[in-house]
Design a protein that fits this description.
Largest sheet: 5 strands, mixed
Radius of gyration: 22 Å
Shape: globular
Oligomer: single chain
Distance between the termini: 45 Å
Strand content: 25-35%
Number of strands: 15
Structural class: mainly beta
Order of helices and strands: EHHEEEEEEEEEEEEEE
C-alpha cells in the first residue's frame, strides 16, 4: 500500500484477482457495469470552521490529505462507500441479519436473512432490489446461493487453490460449509467473513464466519477412510 500524489488529479485503477481471471478468459465475460465511491482516507474531524483565513479554508486540511493507492483487497479498502439517500433523510439505513456470527461444522448449512432498518420511511424492510452478499474466501463453502427473485447464485466452488472472494445477489442467502478437512492442516477452525450490502440503500454489515473441523465419525468403504457427517 502507498500514497498517491494529491497535487494533481489521478485515476489509479487496478483489477482484482477475480477481475484478472475474467479478463484472461477473453470470452467477453469481463464487463465493467457498475462502480462505487468511498472516502476511507478522509478524516472529517479536520474540517475547521475556526480557520483564521475564512470559510474558503475550512476544508484545507482534508483537501491536502494523501490518498491511498488502489489495492485488490475488499477487506482493507473501500470500507466506507458513499451512498445516495433521499433529501430530508434523518437516519442512516442499517442492514441487520438474523445471524450475528455464522458457525458451521463440516457440511453444515445455514441461511442468512437480511433486512434494512430506517429505509424508505419504514423501521424494518427487505429491500426491493435485494442484497449483495460477498464471501471473502469462497474455498470454505461447497455451496453459496442467493435466494429470492431473479438472482445470481453459485452452487459450485469456482476456485480450488486461491483464497478469492465471490459476490452473489438475493433477498436471502444459503451457505453450506466444505465437507473436507484438506484446507485445515493443523488448524481446528477456518475463519472468513460474509459482507451483506443493500442494493438500494448502500448500507452493509459484515458477519464473521467460522468453519470448525468437526469430524463426527469415520467409515471405511473398500479400503478408503472418509468422514461421516450428521
Amino acid at each position: 500500500m502507498g500514497y498517491l500524489d494529491n497535487t494533481s488529479i489521478t485515476v489509479d485503477a487496478i483489477l482484482t484477482k477475480r477481475g484478472r481471471e475474467l479478463l484472461a478468459r477473453g470470452d467477453g465475460s469481463f464487463r465493467i457495469t457498475q462502480f462505487a465511491l468511498a472516502d476511507d482516507e478522509v478524516d472529517y474531524t479536520l474540517y475547521n470552521e475556526s480557520h483564521p483565513n475564512g470559510s474558503q479554508y475550512y476544508g484545507e486540511a482534508i483537501e491536502n490529505m494523501p490518498l491511498l493507492e488502489a489495492i485488490p483487497d475488499e477487506n482493507n479498502i473501500m470500507i466506507h462507500k458513499l451512498v445516495s439517500l433521499p433529501r430530508g433523510t434523518t437516519k442512516m439505513p442499517i442492514v441487520t441479519c438474523n445471524i450475528a456470527k455464522i458457525q458451521l461444522s463440516l457440511g453444515a448449512t445455514t441461511t442468512v436473512k437480511p433486512n434494512t432498518l430506517n429505509f424508505q420511511g419504514l423501521a424494518n424492510v427487505v429491500e426491493s432490489s435485494g442484497y449483495l452478499a460477498t464471501i471473502a474466501d469462497r474455498r470454505l463453502l461447497v455451496s453459496f446461493e442467493g435466494i429470492g427473485g431473479a438472482v445470481a447464485s453459485s452452487t459450485q466452488r469456482p476456485f480450488s487453490n486461491s483464497a478469492l472472494s465471490e459476490t452473489i445477489k438475493g433477498t436471502s442467502f444459503s451457505l453450506t460449509a466444505i465437507n473436507s478437512t484438506t484446507l485445515f492442516g493443523t488448524n481446528t477452525k477456518l475463519l472468513t467473513t460474509l459482507t451483506v450490502e443493500g442494493v438500494d440503500s448502500g448500507a452493509r454489515v459484515t458477519i464473521p464466519v467460522e468453519i470448525t473441523k468437526d469430524v463426527i465419525a469415520t467409515s471405511n468403504t473398500q479400503g478408503v477412510t472418509g468422514i461421516t457427517l450428521t
